[in-house]
Write a structure and sequence with these properties.
The protein is α+β, with helices and mostly antiparallel strands. The chain is built from 4 helices and 12 strands. The protein has one domain: 2,3-Dihydroxybiphenyl 1,2-Dioxygenase, domain 1 (Roll).
């Protein structure tokens, strides 16, 4: 398990993205819009860390060569997580969430990359760690990913997401489903 991404819901995604780019060196990746059945919308930006993703792994990593008495070694470090920033129109799922937090917003959820989303979901249910917004993980074929959200933790107040995906990116349909599931 490793940190995959942090999702913010904010009043202004561009101002937030500019801050994250300047302060932390992130770059804008994908920008897209989610339209809901009530005709409200959420506009989203995916920001990628300055380190590149190693081609042989689905995890974001970077390497540093170090000298030792036994020769050079190459330890692997996990790079910073992707950041997902969204804002929404008045009356939308995202807009209402931000309004409830004084029109500032904040971190909506923290996502962890796992090998088996269903197994983690079952383990957390059995141990009583959290309740989930959906009965089963949400799947998407392009990109190939599986994900699920907990309800806010009674201990931390944080929503946790467990995700398994091949490659980078998000599935627009699953983002919509997840946003709708957390509106309940």
């Amino acid at each position: 398990m490793r940190l995959d991404h942090i999702a913010y819901r904010v009043k202004d995604r561009y101002m937030t993205a500019d801050f994250i780019k300047e302060a932390f060196g992130y770059k804008v990746g994908t920008e897209f819009q989610i339209k809901f059945d009530d005709e409200s919308k959420a506009d989203c930006l995916a920001l990628v860390p300055p380190e590149t993703r190693h081609p042989d792994t689905k995890f974001w990593t970077f390497y540093a060569l170090q000298a030792s008495p036994y020769g050079s070694i190459k330890p692997e470090y996990h790079a910073p997580p992707e950041i997902f920033v969204s804002d929404g129109s008045d009356g939308s799922i995202v807009g209402d969430w931000v309004a409830e937090r004084g029109n500032v917003g904040g971190i909506h959820h923290i996502a962890y990359q796992v090998e088996d989303v269903g197994a983690i979901m079952n383990e957390w249910k059995e141990k009583g760690y959290a309740e989930f917004y959906s009965e089963e993980p949400i799947t998407c074929k392009d990109p190939d990913l599986t994900q699920v959200f907990t309800k806010p933790s009674e201990l931390t107040g944080v929503i946790y997401e467990f995700i398994n995906r091949e490659g980078a990116g998000f599935c627009k349909d699953s983002v919509k489903q997840l946003m709708e599931s957390t509106a309940k």
